[in-house]
Amino acid sequence: MVSKGTYCLCINVADEQIIKVGALRDIAFPEGRYIYVGSAPNSLIPRIERHMKTSKGEHDVTHWHVDYLLREPSVSIEAIYATSNGERMECTLADKVSMHGEPVPRFGCSDCKCNSHLFKVEEFRFLEKMGLRKYP
């Protein structure tokens, strides 16, 4: 896998909850599946591993909106998909994922003009059809 690129975290929220997400304040997360679209312009594998550690409670620093979600005990990463071309296509991919789910407004997109980079979805299988590879 390349050292830079775009990724999708396939997240499971086991119990409905309200989470304070930085400046976004309290956000309700109904039980279900979510996809978070992110990018790593210089360090894809370390970024993915950091998210995995946060999800397991092994890393507690909160830099990004997704950190607030992943650190919750009833939230887990089910799978990770990533690009293999090294291009940063976070917003393009978020737009494509939005066609398969409901956005969590303003989540993960404070540095762009997107509506969201987190989407509540029914399933994750469509990511492979979009050309993403499952992270081992």
Label this structure with key terms.
136 residues; alpha+beta; 6-stranded antiparallel beta sheet; two-stranded antiparallel sheet; 4 helices; 23% helix; globular
Explained architecture:
The chain is of the alpha+beta class and 136 residues long. The chain has one domain. The strands form two sheets. A six-stranded antiparallel β-sheet has the order 6-7-4-1-5-8. The chain starts with a strand and ends with a strand.
Tell me the radius of gyration: 14 Å
- Would you tell me the structural class of the helices and strands? alpha+beta
Please count the helical segments: 4
Number of strands: 8
Low-confidence stretches: none
What is the string of SSEs from the N terminus onward?
Answer: EEEEHHEHEEHE
Largest sheet: 6 strands, antiparallel
Query: What is the residue-mean pLDDT, rounded to a whole number?
Result: 92
Oligomer: single chain
CA-based shape:
globular
Helix content: 10-25%
Order of strands across the widest beta sheet?
A: 6-7-4-1-5-8
Q: Work out the strand percent.
A: 25-35%
Ends distance = 10 Å
Secondary structure elements and their pairing?
Blueprint: E1 5-13, E2 17-20, E3 26-29, E4 32-40, H1 44-55, H2 65-70, E5 75-82, H3 90-98, E6 101-103, E7 118-121, H4 126-129, E8 133-134
Antiparallel strand pairs: 1-4, 1-5, 2-3, 4-7, 5-8, 6-7
